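ESCALATION

Customer reports they have been waiting on this structure for their group meeting. Please prioritize. Original submission:
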Amino acid sequence: MYHSTFLVNRQMITDPSQIMTSLSHYKDTEGNHFKDFFYRLEWYRIGISIPMDLYSEKMPAFELRPECQLTNSEKLQELTTNQKEFYFRIFIIPYKTADKNEDLEYDFINSWFEKQIKGAATIINSELGPNNRIYYKKKPDDKELKQIQSYSLKGKLKVIDIQKLEKIRSKPLGYYKELGCGLLLLD
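Update from on-call: job pushed to the front of the queue and completed.
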């Protein structure tokens, strides 16, 4: 698995469907169209260029693209058995229905995340980061914008089973990965 960093030009990309379109133009290092990836983009961040983390099965090839520029790509470091604690960050939507737009409480979000990492790690501490309502189109040519509430959770984990935690990290957690949710970053 690879961890890549992109800079997203917010003047050119205003909607998650545009990110998927832009990334589909990239090719992997074997020359195939880039696929099998999930990403983390904090839509609430302000700026012309904002960083986006991406995990993928194959390494994207460097290419100049004005709307979404690859800046770094490397093999994702495997978690080591001697490391017992990690700082974590995750941007999530913990429910499947886009119609469910109410604000959820910290206890619900924290409990939901605990269930996702059960058997792999326990939460030492956590806090909600900035939450954001994401506006998006189902398809790039849709006229109507949909919206959904997303949540940012960060804190510290204690490892129970490093291999389970590695497996959890390799797939997006929750729903709406196409909106930049579900990528678990561990430091």
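Sent to customer with the following note: The mean pLDDT is 88.
Escalation resolved.
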